[in-house]
Amino acid sequence: MAFVALLLKVIGLGIILLLSQYALAYLRSPLRKIPGPFFAKFSNIWRFLDHYSQTHIETQKKLHEKYGDIVRLGPTTVSIADPSLIKTIYNTRGTFVKSDYYSVNDALSNGHILQNIFSTRSNDFNARAKKPVQKLYGLQNAMQLESLMDDDVRVFCSELESRFMQGDNKGKTCDIADWISYFAWDFLGHMTWSKRIGFMEKGEDVGGMLKTAENVMRYFSVVGQIPALDKWLGKNPYLPASLYKFDDFSVAAGFSVERFMERMQNPELNKGKKDFLAGFLEAKEESPELILGGADTLAVVIKALFYYLLKTPSAKAKLTAELRAANLSFPAPYKSLEHLPYLNACVSEALRIHPVVGHIFERVVPSAGLSVSLSSSNNHNNNGASTASTTVHLPPGTIVGVNPWVIHSLPSIFGASPLNLHARALAPRR
User: Fold this and answer.
1) Same domain, yes or no, for 57 and 178?
2) Number of domains comprising the chain
3) Do 68 and 182 reside in the same domain of the chain?
4) Rounded to an integer, what distance in angstroms lies between the CA atom of residue 304 and that of residue 321?
5) How many angstroms separate the CA atoms of 16 and 9, rounded?
6) Last residue of a domain, one of 267, 294, 321
7) Per-residue pLDDT at 130 exceeds 90
8) Do residues 276 and 396 both lie within one domain?
9) Which among 178, 244, 259, 362 could bridge 101 via Cys, Cβ 3.0 to 4.6 Å?
């Protein structure tokens, strides 16, 4: 009994000591005047759980509606919805370096951590790694891949017609979101290896690759809120683990390796190829650590465009009229589409209303610090009226960032109905 009593005392003292440390950190914090959720002021566990439950987008939007442009999301993390600070935080000089959030995207290979263009916190590494492959992502190279896109569009339409519109399948329900993902991933494979992965032909998630990609992105999003966890989970050199199942990643890796070995064993296959693999092989001597663009970005954009057009019949009708009046061939070439104002407005609006990323792009405040205006209420209310504010100085090391979902729905910029596709698309941007 005496031992149990002593153990309880030790545990109690430990808890008191821990709470005291949190209290002292809170009282001494230069961010204590910045409003936000109560528990977020003491620990990053709050935002970890918010991301895990996939409620972070709506949570952050509501927090900014309640507190204004500046909201505290963690002991040292601040979300900013002031458009005037975007160029400062994400300046091209790289003075606001990436936070440890990005380290979760590093790769573990044979016990060694490998950075990539997205994950690196080094400006020099980023510039070095991008240089040999930058041309692959330019418009000129994209135009060389247009014939591949045309072929994939034909397959996409043919599969939809045969599976959902013809014969006994006429009227069959189609989950267009799934098929947009199939198209996007097949196009990624086509432009990278000159060979589709086979999603559209099979009409299914080949090898569970789409589910695996979703799990990977969720892992980055959730564990990135407490990056130190990654050392015990995904980057654990002895027993790598995850919050989500990654078992099917071997299918994607296997397909990539097969295409790579084909080219290495038969260099003649590279001749005349304009795909990304040919470009990567040309650049491998200069920089072996390269990255691929993900198909999830393309899929999200197309899904958002379909969703908001179907949700807004008037916008869909106007876009349909513009496309028909243009007398386009099939598939329509980019040169014929780039000057259609309503189409481009709809694409821009879909990207604005439904951004691909739903969390803040974290950056670390440099040695000079950052001064922000702390409003007594939201500066971006429906009528755009200004409110009283005080200036708060964020010290070096503070993590700051902007969430596109928050900034893209500010009434002061996008009107009283910021999520209305038709209202914005009526005035196409030039």
Assistant:
1) no
2) 2
3) no
4) 20
5) 10
6) 294
7) no
8) no
9) 362
Q: Are residues 175 and 70 in the same domain?
A: no
Domain assignment present for 316: no
Distance (Å) of CA 247 to CA 59, 215, 216, 251, 300: 31, 10, 11, 9, 24
Burial 339-369 (b: 16+ CB within 10 A, else e): ebebbbbbbebbbbbbbeebbbbbbbbeeee
Q: What is the pTM of this model?
A: 0.81
The residue assigned the tokens 């939201």 is: 378
Phi and psi at 79, nearest 5°, equal -95, 135
* Phi/psi of residue 144, nearest 5 degrees: -70, -20
Domain boundary residue, one of 255, 273, 294: 294
Position 292 pLDDT exceeds 50: no
Q: What is the pLDDT of residue 71?
A: 96
Q: Looking at the structure, tell me whether residues 71 and 210 fall in a common domain.
A: no
Say whether both 150 and 93 belong to one domain. no
Sign of the dihedral through C-alpha 101, 102, 105, 108: negative
Q: Is the pLDDT of residue 190 over 60?
A: yes
- Report helix, strand or coil for 81: coil
Res 322: pLDDT: 95
Q: Closest Cα to residue 183, out of 205, 214, 213? A: 205
Q: Under DSSP, is residue 107 helix (H, G, I), strand (E, B) or coil?
A: strand
The pLDDT value recorded for residue 430 is: 47
Residue 393 pairs in a beta bridge with: 371
Rounded to the nearest 5 degrees, what angle is found at the Cα of 180, between the Cα atoms of 402 and 154?
135
Q: Give yes or no: residues 61 and 133 share one domain.
A: no
The DSSP code for 136 is G
Q: Which domain holds residue 227?
A: 127-294
Q: pLDDT tens-digit profile of 355-392? A: 999 999 999 999 999 999 876 554 555 554 445 578 88
Asked if residue 104 is part of any domain, the answer here is no
Q: Is the pLDDT of residue 398 over 70?
A: yes
**Rounded Cα distance, 324 and 343, in Å:** 12
In a domain, 22, yes or no: no
User: What amino acid occupies position 142?
Assistant: A
Domain annotation covers residue 164: yes
Joined tokens for residue 43: 């620990």
Burial class for 416, CB neighbours closer than 10 Å (0-12, 13-18, 19+): exposed
Give the whole-angstrom CA distance, residue 235 versus residue 266: 35
